Amino acid sequence: MIMIIEIDGFFHQVLLTGKKCSKQQLKQMYLQAKEITIESKDFSNVFCRLHNFEQIPYSKDIKVDFVLDTDTDRIYALSY
């Protein structure tokens, strides 16, 4: 199964798709990518390379499984 996550940061909003995982697994993946990211604008590219996710065109109409807020380091699910 696949999941869609939104990377929400001060400079950008990006949608990524990849293998479905738990919130705890996603947190570990987030921390790994954050640790080696130098510029915050490069975070989504680093995350994709590390964890085999792909960027998809952004749309507010797409329902996401989780949001990764790179400004606050929060990971949460939206209620639809």
From TrEMBL:
Highest taxon of the lineage: Bacteria
Name of this chain's protein: Uncharacterized protein
Lineage, broadest ranks: Bacteria, Bacillati, Bacillota, Bacilli, Bacillales
